[in-house]
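User: tokens in, sequence out, please.
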């Protein structure tokens, strides 16, 4: 069993914000007596309906728990696939899932330096299957504390299994709208491709930012806003796909991945097609994109405003970042910024 006493000083009650105490099977609040069970070595700061897959989706959060929970249960090994196990002919289908892809993505999207991890409290806000939590630990040391937080049932279970070799990684099931973490307790934080799936990216950003110490860093990666034709096509397609069951969405995603593979063989086919809609030859990317219950697209101006409103100084070249979205057609799929808390 994990030694949760190592993180007790970081935690608070999500209901009254009181301090927590720990017993063998749960955390409980010293003020309001609310209990948070520890199930399979994962503290659960959510309603018990979030512990597993079910067909009830009364809210965006519950549907997100189901669909992303299923995704990371099904694609548990994504980011942990050995490069040598992927044949050259299959690279497009597995792009993003190999260990080298995980390492490269951490460099470009999570962007924490070794000095920002070693001996630090690090938060992965929306950890998915734990691949970036794992990568952060690889770059840190055994004196750091790494917290992976996600709302998906399969996400936290896969994260735990993928990172359990490290005693200083702790996986928590919680909402990014109501984290069980005290103010200013985190040294370094990253959120890679998650905030835009919450239904209110700005609100989630603000809640995560609340936990970062003065002098601490926060890296956020969200979807960028693309050209008007693409945005319209994506909107009407997702009006259909987000109403599908998980099984039907998997079937559609498989068909779209195969279509993308064929288009990718044409001269500039992939580049041209993606001016009009999102296509990738990997099943997971198609399912991730089209099944997500909500997915907002943003500009650097918006993202920089979130940092400023939460008392962060942008660590990037702001004019350069803003220029990336000036073109009508050639805009980045994802936008990324790093800020340091004042």
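Assistant: Sequence out:
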């Amino acid at each position: 069993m994990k030694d949760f006493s190592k993180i007790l000083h970081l935690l608070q009650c999500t209901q009254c914000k009181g301090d927590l105490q720990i017993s063998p099977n749960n955390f409980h609040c010293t003020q309001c007596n609310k209990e948070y069970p520890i199930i399979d070595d994962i503290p659960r700061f959510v309603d018990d309906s979030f512990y597993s897959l079910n067909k009830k989706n009364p809210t965006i959060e519950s549907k997100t728990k189901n669909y992303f929970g299923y995704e990371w249960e099904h694609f548990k090994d994504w980011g942990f696939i050995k490069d040598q196990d992927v044949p050259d002919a299959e690279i497009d289908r597995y792009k993003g899932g190999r260990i080298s892809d995980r390492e490269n993505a951490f460099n470009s999207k999570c962007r924490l330096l070794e000095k920002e991890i070693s001996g630090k409290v690090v938060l992965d806000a929306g950890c998915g299957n734990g691949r970036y939590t794992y990568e952060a630990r690889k770059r840190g040391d055994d004196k750091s504390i790494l917290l992976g937080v996600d709302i998906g049932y399969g996400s936290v279970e896969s994260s735990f299994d993928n990172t359990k070799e490290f005693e200083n990684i702790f996986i928590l099931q919680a909402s990014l709208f109501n984290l069980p973490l005290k103010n200013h307790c985190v040294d370094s934080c990253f959120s890679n491709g998650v905030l835009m799936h919450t239904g209110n990216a700005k609100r989630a950003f603000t809640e995560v930012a609340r936990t970062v110490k003065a002098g601490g860093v926060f890296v956020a990666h969200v979807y960028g806003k693309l050209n008007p034709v693409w945005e319209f096509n994506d909107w009407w397609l997702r009006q259909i796909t987000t109403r599908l069951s998980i099984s039907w969405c998997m079937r559609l995603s498989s068909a779209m991945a195969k279509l993308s593979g064929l288009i990718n063989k044409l001269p500039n086919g992939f580049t041209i097609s993606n001016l009009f809609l999102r296509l990738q030859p990997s099943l997971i990317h198609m399912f991730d994109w089209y099944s997500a219950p909500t997915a907002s697209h943003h500009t650097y101006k918006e993202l920089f405003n979130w940092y400023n409103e939460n008392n962060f100084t942008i660590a990037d070249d702001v004019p350069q970042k803003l220029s990336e979205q000036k073109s009508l057609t050639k805009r980045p799929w994802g936008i990324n910024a790093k800020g340091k808390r004042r």
